[in-house]
Amino acid sequence: MIGIMEPVAGADAVADGATGPGAGVVSRPRLFERLAPQGRVSVVSAPPGSGKTVLLRSWIRWAGVAGSAAWVPAGRGERDAQRFWLSVLAALRQTAAGSALIRELTAAPDLDGWVIVERLLADLAPLGDRLWLVVDDVQELGPDALRQLELLIMRAPPPLRFVLATRHDVRLGLHRLRLEGELAELREPDLRFTLAEAQELFDAAGVELPGPALVLLQERTEGWAAGLRLAALSLAGHPDPARFAAEFSGTERTVAEYLLAEVLDRQPEPVRRLLLRTSILGRVNGELAGLLTGDSGGERMLQDLEVANAFVVALDPGRSWFRYHQMFADLLRLELRRAAPGEVTALHRAAAGWFAGHEYPVEAVRHAQAARDWGLAARLLSDSWLSLVLDGQQDTAHELLAGFPAGVTAGDPELKAPAAADELNQGSFEQAERHLARASGELGSVPAQRTGRFQVTMGILRLSLARQRGDVPAVAEEAQRLLAGAADGADPGLGAERRALALISLGMAETWTYGPEEAERHLEQGVALARQIGRPYLELTGLAYLAQIAIFGSFSVAAQRGRQAAGLAQRHGWSGDQAAGVAYTMLAAAAVTQGKLEEAGPWLDRAAQTLRAEAEPASGMVLYYLRGQLELARGRDEEALSALQAADQLAGTLVTPHILAPMIRAHLLITLLRLGQSGRAEAALAGLEARERQSAEMRISLASLRLAQHDPQAATAALAPVINGSVPAGHPHFLIAALLLEAIARDALGDPGAAGRPLEHPLDLAEPNGVLIPFLIDPAPELLERHAGQRTAHPALIADILSVLAGRRSAPPPDGPRPPLEPLSDSEIRVLRYLPTNLSAAEIGRELTVSNNTVRTHISHVYAKLGTHTRAEAVARARALGLLAPSPLRSQTTRRG
Asked: Is 252 helix (H, G, I), strand (E, B) or coil?
């Protein structure tokens, strides 16, 4: 074991604020509870400054065991076992239980630790009351004292418990106790101060710190108690706490002095050299340490440092990669600049070469930039850009590009392609196009051996620009060019990736037109290839758009693909990515369409947090359109208008008209009507081109307008071409909407029987997928209730629609009907929805796939909870409470007026 560190008096006292102004102790009950387990031994193993000593003293007070706890601090470099054990005896004799059992013993030349331990075991044999032996700084004990302590632990009577604090693990043979569940362990991650504990520490020191500054300090110190305490001491009276927190690091004088004294100055020269020369790295392994130091044995040194809690953290289970605590790394880099300033650039250049050779491009570019080797950094970024994009690391590519001086970016043709990609990712299409044009004009200055890859990169960027602009023909042209290039085998390293990217991009663009079969075929091919070549980000993108295609056919398939894409994003850390946002949008789409409004809202909120409409206008348009539908279904017409206007604006930015554009305009007109602005709706319809006015979407909007103007006859005339098929309905939902509006119009014409027959048809179409949204946007609860009593084939669907319509109504006022005597269960509410119909209990049971007796039991419970005695009374009471849709008070025509 390397001689990692020697203690300095007061190290842990500083950590918890036991000295100086505001020396209050932070209460840490989450740790206290773990120090009093049922096991025999508790070990607290953490670096200096973690607050071990003060934690144990605080625990003794918190647990109320001051009279039963013997405290023994091991002296610095304690090698005299006799002196240590005499200290143990003296501490135990000061406890209530120990004073009666343990005989006094004085030092003698021939008295060794083994004899003392045997005598102590004999004295403690009759111990009946709980007694704790707390040993601090166990790492200071010599080998003999450690073996003797192990003997005592293994043979001690059950009432004697041990609490051991150490800066690093020592050889005590505690593995047997661990297997037996008799060992509790607290380590450095456990002792890190939480945000709440850090707040308590600053409060005790009398320091007021803004919330963001506190978070920043807690993150910078990684919860290290000494770092937080030293920050608190430095902040006392500081004029700008927020600025101090932003600048606080391991180079701050008090922190640097502490770490130098506690850690760095105590290391052997080989260890010190390794720490300093590898401090330039964000992570290090043995091979890389050997390269930068010129020495062997780097991995063993790093492992020993990690075991010794020397602010070195293992990053993988095999303990091959390590990083340094942030504040320790700050100090090391400062010391490197002081000790060997001329070596820093060479170290970065060597690290860049190693990372590049081992296919770690991000770290390679960063170290090349740190070495100011701009040519190397530019080549590395150019070569790795596509891989970064295909791995979902566009933000990382943006950071790397920002690391170049402006003059370097402008003067290097190979950097113009990543610059164009960065502008695309930010939604700056014109700027991206300028970068592409300049890069194409400078193709001749690219080295011949790099020209092929450069041209591929340019093709991919042209494809991305066309797709994001919504230029479907241009996407098809660029995709076919890339597919042809991928097939010629000129660049095997990029061939499969190019093909997968081209297929998925082509399928994405094709989803905007009425060509779902071609889009699905290309997307499925691209997803399959992405899986084959191990590109999960491409797979995620393809799955998200496959979900978008499925929404036109099967909501269950769309939701399944959306959940699959969302799960893939979560596994790889892409939950905040654009592609994940598309998946969230499709999950919301399925929920909105099926009337699951409470489920849809959170999905739309997540999508809004991830999608950048300026970079992906088509995806943003879909998001706003769905938000508009959701708000219409909720009855929030003003919010719906705002969302639909945003969707319509984005639709206008796309080169190729999107499949949703007519639907957006149709719902905009319906929203105007619901807001009582029929004049604006009339003018908007009149302003359309003749061809668009004849589309199914606009005919449905016209029918809604005529109903609002109390002209149901004109409404049926507008709908006739859609219903008889001479004008294609486009999306199936619009045929449902047309049939529903026809039923509403016929009912307004005074022919309820004629209305009932058309109403069955849209219910037939809606039933297979549970489509509720047309019935929520054009609600007709009274018509549906009457239809439910006419032996419809769809009582369950009608019950669901009426339930959603009832749920969006405001709660009854305080002076309204009294609430149910008890809340209705979910099963009782499902049965309640069928009570307005004329179905028998047996028929309701068949609809719900439960027994007749179960239905009757639920009905009796409903009556009891609502305080009613008959079916009619229960329905009336449920309507008054908002549990069912209200009875019609006005005709549909009157409501629309």
From this structure: coil
Sheet holding 183-187, edge to edge: 69-73, 131-136, 160-166, 41-45, 183-187
Nearest-angstrom CA–CA distance, 691 and 678: 22
Q: How does pLDDT run across 265-299, given as a tens digit for each residue?
A: 888 999 999 999 999 999 999 999 999 999 989 99
Asked if 251 contacts 331 with a C-beta cutoff of 8 angstroms, the reply is yes
Segment 171-198 mean pLDDT: 86
Using DSSP, state whether 463 is helix, strand or coil.
Answer: helix
Angstrom CA distances, 408 to 196, 394, 420, 475, stand at 46, 20, 15, 31
Residue type at 105?
L
Out of 2.30.110.10, 3.40.50.300, 3.90.226.10, 3.40.50.1100, which CATH number does the structure's domain 11-191 have? 3.40.50.300
Rg (CA), the chain: 37
Note the pLDDT tens digit of each residue in 22-66.
344 678 888 888 886 667 899 999 988 888 888 999 888 888 888
Distance CA 35, CA 489 (A): 65
Confidence bin at 417 (pLDDT 50/70/90): confident
Kindly report the CA angle at 872 between 868 and 875, in degrees rounded to 5? 80
Which residue type does 882 have?
A: G
Residue 847 is encoded by which pair of tokens? Answer: 């609809």
Report domain extents, the chain.
11-191, 195-248, 535-611, 612-687, 694-792, 793-896
User: Using an 8 Å Cβ cutoff, are 828 and 865 in contact?
Assistant: yes
Residues 6+ positions from 839 with CB-CB distance below 8 Å: 795, 847
Beta bridge pairs of residue 73: 136
For position 705, what pLDDT does the model report? 93
Question: What number of other Cβ atoms are within 10 A of residue 701's Cβ?
Answer: 28
Q: What percent of the chain has pLDDT over 70?
A: 91
Per-range mean pLDDT, top range of 106-120, 289-303, 512-526, 802-816: 289-303
DSSP of 739-776: HHHHHHHHHHTT-HHHHHHHHHHHHHHHTTTT--HHHH
Q: How far apart are CA 325 and CA 302, in angstroms?
A: 13
Q: Which two tokens stand for residue 401?
A: 């590009």
pLDDT over threshold 50, residue 816: no
Rounded alpha-carbon distances, angstroms, from residue 688 to 103, 513, 594, 692, 895: 105, 21, 31, 6, 27
Strand 69-73 and strand 131-136: pairing?
parallel
Q: Based on the number of CB atoms within 10 Å of its own CB, is 4 exposed (0-12), middle (13-18) or buried (19 or more)?
A: buried
| Parallel/antiparallel/unpaired status of strands 160-166 and 131-136 | parallel
In this structure, CATH architecture of domain 793-896: Orthogonal Bundle (1.10)
Which pLDDT band holds residue 494 (cuts at 50, 70, 90)? low
- Residues 738, 720 contacting (CB under 8 angstroms): no
Residue 68 has pLDDT above 60, yes or no: yes
The chain-wide mean pLDDT, for the chain, equals 85
- Cβ atoms 291, 284 nearer than 8 A: no
User: Which long-range contacts (C-beta less than 8 Å, at least 24 apart) are formed by 363-371?
Assistant: 363/282, 365/400, 365/403, 366/400, 366/403, 367/280, 369/400, 369/403, 369/404, 370/280, 370/345, 371/345, 371/346
Q: Are 722 and 738 in contact (CB under 8 A)?
A: yes
Residue 136's SS3 state is strand
Which residues does residue 807 pair with via DSSP β-bridges, in sequence order?
none
Confidence at residue 764, expressed as pLDDT on a 0 to 100 scale: 93
Cα–Cα distance, 769 to 778 (Å, whole number): 18
DSSP state of 222: T
Question: Is the CB of residue 545 less than 8 Å from the CB of residue 561?
Answer: no
Tokens at residue 167, please?
A: 């800066």
Class of domain 694-792: mainly alpha
